[in-house]
Design brief:
By secondary structure, this protein is mostly helical. The protein is built from 14 helices and six strands. Its EC number is 1.10.3.-.
């Protein structure tokens, strides 16, 4: 077995580790953006109404956020080390170009951490106004932190802000131009809205499951309502930002668009393909439902517009078309379902004054939680795998950026064990906190509960 592990190329191990750690961290990052926003709203309602129910709701969420923030800090640190350990040529060549957003993200994280400390550990001594004023910067810093990180990924898709000399070194570095590259606006907005959608879906899932088990008090109804409200706002916005992102990909990365749609041949009236499995060798798609002209219309606002096919690009620059196409279909399909689900709930809220509580709807909300994570992961597969074989599109291939160090399989296995311990520990703590009675912890987010929970 060890011989077989060593025989696998370092590129495979490096890609696997990066995919695993990014896929795990991105869920925590979404909660780090979305949960503070919900906390801020709950604290605002408590401050405005004086209703202690809102204060208790915020206190329960604050405890969960503390656990997730700590685990997210560890998983995010692992990712930052991986950039240098796994991709030394990439960081050695382009570190000066993309260093600015990572530096600014560090400042945003420290601001967030400072106010997290103030809010969590000073909550028992702060007035409702003080708690509200301490949690708002957390929500802002979380979104700003996500913005800075995603700008680096956007740059990898549409690199700007430097020239690459014949000696392989970068010259004329313009960090601000690199950070605000053409992909920055749509990628950052699309990701931040996704964070709110995932958070709203997961929070609604937790309270829907509790209500299905018979816990239908005011606390759980409020938690469900807040989660559904955030998700119902974010879901249609995500469709708008997704269409915007698709337009920009069509303009800036036509090869990625062709892979997303499994569009092999250049032509007019390009079809939009639903479902299907691309056969790269035969250059056709099996089992798809084609809507003639729809891709041309969506990409260029003209059903007769020409859409470039994969045939226009060197085959050694094609990404894995089946993976990208299927991931794109999963993302769009689940996103459409979430819009319908939360839109139906919002319509019921508007008509009846309450969110639906029928068991079939609550079960659908429970399913929406993991479905939103699946859509999130599929979106990142489209973004990252759709850029392959480039780590910096057009300038450096992923195979040229990877380390040649031995023993990457042991590093990957160690990372798996670390993340397993982190997530099992976090799950256990969250389960313990959820088991606490609702009338505990009246004095602040991390006040002592029943003498045994600090």
């Amino acid at each position: 077995m060890p011989t077989l592990l060593i025989a696998v190329e370092p590129l495979v191990w490096a890609r696997s580790q990066m995919a695993f750690t990014l896929g795990a961290h991105i869920v925590l990052a979404c909660l780090g953006v979305g949960l503070p926003a919900l906390l801020a709203f709950a604290e605002f309602r408590h401050w405005r109404s004086g209703d202690e129910g809102w204060g208790r709701l915020a206190q329960r969420w604050a405890k969960a956020f503390a656990v997730l923030f700590a685990v997210g800090a560890v998983s995010g640190t692992v990712l930052s080390f991986e950039l240098g350990l796994l991709w030394p040529a990439f960081m050695g060549t382009f570190g000066s170009v993309i260093g600015l957003p990572f530096t600014l993200e560090g400042f945003a994280f420290f601001v967030e951490a400072i106010f997290v400390g103030v809010y969590l550990y000073g909550g028992a001594r702060l007035s409702p106004t003080g708690r509200l004023l301490s949690v708002v910067p957390i929500a802002v810093a979380g979104a700003v932190s996500a913005f800075f990180v995603v700008t680096a990924n956007a740059w990898m898709n549409t690199p700007r802000g430097f020239t690459l000399g014949s000696d392989g070194r970068v010259h004329d570095v313009a960090p601000w131009a690199a950070m605000f590259n053409p992909s920055t606006p749509h990628e950052t907005v699309h990701m931040i809205v996704a964070a709110y959608l995932v958070t709203g879906s997961l929070v609604a899932m937790v309270y829907a499951a509790a209500i299905l088990r018979g816990r239908s008090g005011e606390h759980h109804r409020r938690g469900l309502a807040l989660g559904l409200t955030l998700a119902a706002i974010a879901a249609p916005l995500q469709a708008v930002t997704g269409h915007w992102a698709g337009d920009r990909v069509a303009e800036l990365q036509p090869l990625k668009l062709a892979a997303m749609e499994a569009h092999f041949e250049t032509g007019t009236w390009a079809p939009l393909r639903l479902f299907g499995w691309p056969d790269v060798e035969a250059r056709e798609v099996h089992g798809s439902i084609d809507i003639p002209g729809a891709l041309s219309l969506l990409a260029h606002r003209d059903p007769a517009a020409v859409v470039l096919g994969l045939e226009e690009f060197p085959e050694d620059e094609w990404p894995p078309v089946p993976i990208v196409h299927v991931a794109f279909q999963v993302m769009v399909g689940i996103g459409t379902g979430l819009i319908a689900l939360f839109g139906f709930g919002a319509l019921g809220r508007w008509r009846r004054g309450n969110w639906p509580t029928e068991r079939w709807y609550l079960r659908a909300v429970v399913a929406a939680g993991p479905a939103s994570i699946l859509a999130l992961e599929a979106g990142w597969v489209v973004t990252e795998v759709g850029r392959q074989p480039w780590i910096v599109r057009g300038f450096m291939r992923t195979s040229d950026a990877v380390t040649d160090a031995a023993g990457l399989h042991w590093l990957f296995l160690a990372t798996l064990l670390l993340y397993l311990a982190l997530f099992v520990g976090a799950w256990s703590v969250l389960r313990y906190l959820a088991s606490k009675p609702l009338d505990a912890a009246q004095d602040g987010p991390l006040a002592q509960e029943s003498g045994d929970d600090a």
